[in-house]
Amino acid sequence: MDRAKASFLGRVALLSRLPPVVLSRVVQKTDPVKVRRRSALWRPGDVADMLYFVRSGVVRIGMDADTAHAITLAFHGKGDVVGESGVLCAVLGAPAQRHTHAVAHEELVAYALHIDELRRILEASPAVSAELAALVADRRRRVEERLGTLPFKPVPSRVAEALIDLCGPFGVRDSRGVIVNLRLTHRELAGLVGSTRETVSAVLSELRRAEVLEIESKRVIVLDVEALRARAAI
């Protein structure tokens, strides 16, 4: 058995409570997938037949990938599960097609588990079934809450809130504050908050003048987290 692979998969929340014999099968049946930066892991209309566990890199989940105003739904990094919504629908007998796109925001390495193997796991472990359903429900709730508030919050508040949220999974503390360890263009941030690149650029410039944040190599450094939280609450 690949010990490094087994150790990684055993720490993934969705798999962490599997009996050793079942986890061993998962390790054997998952295949590594490598995707170059800006290339697609899946596209809308693709068959939802794989569940992915992110080993390294970042996946951007969104819609309308080929337009100037693409919507970004979420970013997922190391240890995250992606593709869960489509495969859960397939397991339940619903149409098994992707309705989003998944792009390697940074060069991606993931382990892919085919839906047939996932069915066997779910049959063997009801706890994993409940965990997967909870993951799908929680992510959908988060997206609905964020999109539901877009018409009612000013863009500066949306930008501040999005950056605070990104500090959770991607934040790295240093002497200056919190580095959001995710390279973001102004257009990509605009897609996350439902605005335009020009408006988001203006908001970021104002936050820099106020010394709330700095930008270095397309990475945001939050210098004053509390000030950013206050702006998110407006």
Tell me what you see in this structure.
This protein has 234 residues and is α+β, with helices and mostly antiparallel strands. It has helices at 3-11, 20-29, 84-91, 115-124, 126-149, 155-170, 186-193, 197-209, 225-232; strands at 31-35, 40-42, 50-63, 71-76, 81-82, 101-114, 171-174, 177-180, 213-216, 219-222. The strands form 2 sheets. Strands 1, 2, 3, 4, 5 and 6 form a 6-stranded antiparallel sheet that branches. Helix 4 (115-124) packs across helix 5. The radius of gyration is 19 Å and the shape is globular. The model has no long low-confidence stretch (mean pLDDT 90).
How is this fold's topology laid out?
Layout: H1 3-11, H2 20-29, E1 31-35, E2 40-42, E3 50-63, E4 71-76, E5 81-82, H3 84-91, E6 101-114, H4 115-124, H5 126-149, H6 155-170, E7 171-174, E8 177-180, H7 186-193, H8 197-209, E9 213-216, E10 219-222, H9 225-232
Antiparallel strand pairs: 1-6, 2-6, 3-4, 3-5, 3-6, 7-8, 8-10, 9-10
Helix pairs in contact: 1-2, 4-5, 6-7, 6-9, 7-8
Quick description:
The chain is built from nine helices and ten strands.
Key terms:
234 residues, alpha+beta, 6-stranded antiparallel sheet, 4-stranded antiparallel sheet, 9 helices, 10 strands, globular
The SS-based structural class is alpha+beta
Number of helices: 9
- DSSP strand tally: 10
Question: What's the Cα radius of gyration?
Answer: 19 Å
Name the helix and strand elements from N-terminus to C-terminus, one letter apiece: HHEEEEEHEHHHEEHHEEH
* Range of helix content: 40-55%
Percentage of residues in DSSP E strands: 25-35%
Gross geometry: globular
- Average of per-residue pLDDT values: 90
Largest sheet: 6 strands, antiparallel
Alpha-carbon distance between the termini?
A: 52 Å
Low-confidence stretches: none
